[in-house]
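Dear Dr. L.,

I hope this message finds you well. Following up on our conversation about the binding site, I have prepared a predicted three-dimensional model of the protein together with FE2/S2 (inorganic) cluster. For your records, I am including the exact sequence and ligand specification that went into the calculation, followed by the structure tokens. Please feel free to forward this to your student if that is useful.
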Amino acid sequence: MTDIRLSVNGRPIAGACEPRTHLADFLRDRLDLTGTHLRCEQGVCGACTVLIDGAPARSCINYAVNCQGAEVTTIEGFGGDEVMSRLRTAFHEEHALQCGFCTPGMLVTARDIVLRLPEADAAQVRTELSGNLCRCTGYAGIVRAICRVLDERRGAAPVSAGRLGPVGARPGASVAGARPAMTEAGTAPAAAPGTGELGLGGRKPNLETALSFTVRRPIDEVWAVLGDIPRVARCMPGASLSAPPSDGHVEGRMSVKVGPIATNFAGAARIVREEAERRGTLYGAGRDGLSGSSARAEVTYALAPTGPDATRIDITLKTVLAGPLAQFGRSGIVKELMARLAEQFARRLEQTLEHGAPDDEAMPETSLRPLALIAGLIADKFRSLFRRAR
Amino acid sequence: MKPAPFDYTRPASVSEAAAALAAGEGGAKLIAGGQSLGPMLNLRLVQPRLLVDVAGIEALHAFEETADALRIGAGITAANIEDQRIDTGAVPLLQRVAAGIAYRAVRNRGTIGGSLCHADPAADWVNLMPALGVRYELVGPSGRRTVAAADFMTAAFETVLAPDEVLETVVIPKPSAGARFGHVKIARKTGKFAMAIAVVVSDPGRGVFRALIGATHGRPLVVEEAASLLGSDGNTPDTARIGALLVEAGITEPAARQLHLTALRRAAAEAFSKALPS
Ligand code: FES
Ligand code: FES
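The resulting structure of the complex is given below.
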């Protein structure tokens, strides 16, 4: 718990709250100011927009502790505000709301537009409103209402609140020499692998990637090595088996770290090998104990001889990712990451096939920076290309 | 949609912040405006044990214009630049790019340094600074160092910043009078993550003709001698070569490649649309 003091709608507030309590929860649950609405809680929809130090800000991605000493104004705090009163009338008369869910955030944003951009036209109003989503009105009434108040005030001088640095931020007290308190490291709850359905189960994959490479080894040898599950698992960056595989059934973990994002998937897989076709498929499912994301995957490998001592390996990977990792909405980056993982897996597999199993030194099982590695590679290639061009 | 528990400290200075990060032994995370980190914390994609809040540190709000550069404190927000609360007129692109970042409510909190250190491949500042030949001044327990913007980001969400280092100042060289700029950002909707960003800078007075292809899946591509890509007149792009660079950077989808190519063409056209003053 951290003690905080701030001003809300002109009233001084003091209290203790958990650092992870975002401002909107603090306003709604502690102060009963439920006019501030919450929907996406990731800064996208604008429903939670309030004024901090007189400037609009999201109360869902600013924590109450960040607002120590700040002046917060919620939709309940505009009683005597002239512009807000005009906006209320205009919203009413122009049908700028239906269910009203977006309205508190809309009004706070609208007031900022009117004050800060007194010469705005309808197109600019629309641009400025792009951070506030409305599911009901189609925006036309909202834009009309704001334009009406702008017209009423034509000629007014622009007013913009704010200061240097983030609104709401205040200098801290010196903590020199003190060791900061730290929350205990969370332990990822162990998933219960192996019980549920494995593979995609007919679901449509949302991420797919494929790659092929050729190794200088005869097909029978490649086929045999691919049947050695612990050896193959060691080729997968960040993966480890939690028990020896039995009868094509494996359980294990996989952790991948990208910048500050850490995942730690626990899961199970069944591997089906079709001897005659020289083809194998892994049906897997896992859950990230940290974010609660879940993943299902089907990985197929197919072997084809390209000579007496050479084999082509075609790998296809289909995944259904669900939960926060998918919600984060950056499928391009996740897809890229998967492709890079697959590429690294292929390279390690190639190494183990051509030169025997490399030692653990060369294949760290936990720490992984695949994107960093590959990006470095690209940069090098790029530089050499560029040098040639010069 | 609530973050996992974390502790919180608000140090008074940059050196105290670096010390707190060092004491956190990998469990501590710096937060400035929190406009990128906040969503990730709420989604529990990031689970630090300690947040070190530097948003209020006044040294990070410093601004200085010297004879040849703008020195912008890492804690200056996009709205500060959009409103010209600091005068960045010497580098005209800054105000325009600032005004195009996300939404006003986000710009009021989001800082220039926070965005650069977060290193999201689609972020606006990330895809501008390398094109302007910017340098970053970093402060850590063992002292200060300077890193070129082009060398700072290593991959998506990854930088050369040590776990206990803090980005303090963004040093932007002033272009000469004849400099020309083109900047194009393609996004599905105002404020959304960019699908393509391109920057072209032509500053013959300083011997600079640079192109940047941004909003890739990793670090932006920076081409120092852009004449080899765009032609010496800037308007005869070698589309085959640009396409090959994009493929190498992992942009394999034809539609995505076309977007990047279009952005680059438009940026070059903007930079070269007016005749250079003699
Ligand atoms: S709830 Fe805050 S932006 Fe959606
Ligand atoms: S009025 Fe219903 S969401 Fe806007």
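In brief: Chain B has three domains: 7-53, 58-173, 181-271.

With kind regards,
A. P.
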